[in-house]
Each structure stands twice: as C-alpha cells, then as structure tokens.
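your task:
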Amino acid sequence: MTDGSSTPYLVVETGSHEGQRINLTGAHLTVGRSTDCDVRFQDPYLSRTHAALWQRGGADYVEDLGSAGGTFVNGEPIKEPRRLYPGDHVTFADLRLRYRTDEGAPTAVRYDVGDQRAHTINNVARDQYVIQQRENFFREIAATKTKARGLIWTGVVVFLIGLGIAAVGWYTYFGQILDFSSASGMPTQDDFSGFLVFALGGLVNLIGLLLIIAGIVLHIVATARRRRVDRELPPPQRMR
C-alpha cells in the first residue's frame, strides 16, 4: 500500500453505488457482476469478472481481466496492470471510482511535474479536461458496444426462430403439393397454408439478419469512434 497508517481505498463517485467504498488491504480482489467476485456491483455494463485489485511492493495496482467495457485509469484504457496514486480515477466500464489514501486525500489527479525548463508550461487544467472528456467518451462507447452485442445476439436468435418456422412451412407445403397432385378437384386456400408459413419464416429470417447487420455496423462505428478519441484526445503524458 502507500506509506502511512491509513488504509487506501476506492470510493464510487457515480451511479446508484455512489459512496460505496472498497478497502484495499493487500488481498487480491476481483471486481464484477458475478457472485464469485470479491467486490460485486449490479451494473449492466460490467463484465461478470471485470477487473482485479492487488498489491505489489507496497503499492496498489488495478488490472483489467479481459472485460468487454474496459478498465480505465484517468481516462486511459489499460491493457496491463497499472499502479494507482492518490487522486487517480479508476473506471470500470460505466462505473467511476476515486483512489484515496485517507479522508483528507486531495481529489485532484496526481501529476509528477518534475524539473521545469525554460518556456515549458505544464498545463494541468487542460490535462484534467482531456481526462474527463476521454472518460465520458469511453463510457458512451462502452454502452454502444454493449447495445451492439445485444442487437447481434437478438438477431441470431430471431434468425434461428425464422429458420425453424420456414423449415416447418416448407415441410408442410411440400406435403400439401404431394396431396394435391394425388387428389382431384381445385386447390383450396388451406392447400397453400404451408407456403404462407414458409413465407412468414423467411420474413422473420430477414428481420433477424437486419438486426445482426445493425449490430455489426454499430460495433464498427463504436470501434472507429474509440480510435478517433485516442487520436484526437491522447492521454496526457505523465512521468512516474
């Protein structure tokens, strides 16, 4: 942990869990929606096992566990364990927390300015604005990707249902054709009911396919937006 007698912790700053506190005592803690997690949040944007919190060499670290919504420190998505410093913002998908060491810890994001050189200005206010903007964008992007996955899976289910309906309709229609060819007289409306069921199945197939395409397009747009955010709002460079 950090130096001093106080126990570091994370406190939730947004949503229905605002004010909830996670004490970091050196144990390895998993965070997510699953009942198997050490720290559980009922947040639809969190993965079942989203991230981990642990200690190494007297410091606290956060690690993403392959979550769908992503884990961010000061607006920057992390791909490997990241050390936490007092005042850091930690975001799990749509859930934002602040890392503190005691009740009086400063709420500003930590920056190691280092030696000043001539004509060099460390624009901390702008960096804080960039971090806030990145966190907002990434929360929106995570929500969009979740919606896209929902559309894709719904489309797959609808497509399979339509496939089943079409198969039943075709089987019925084929049987009606055989019955009509072996019988005499004019065909009735009931003789074509199998074809109508087959056509209905095809319509349901089309709806499912459109949902899948919409989900894929939405996911592509979200991915492209994330790349644009990384390009236009790069995370502030900080010296540790």
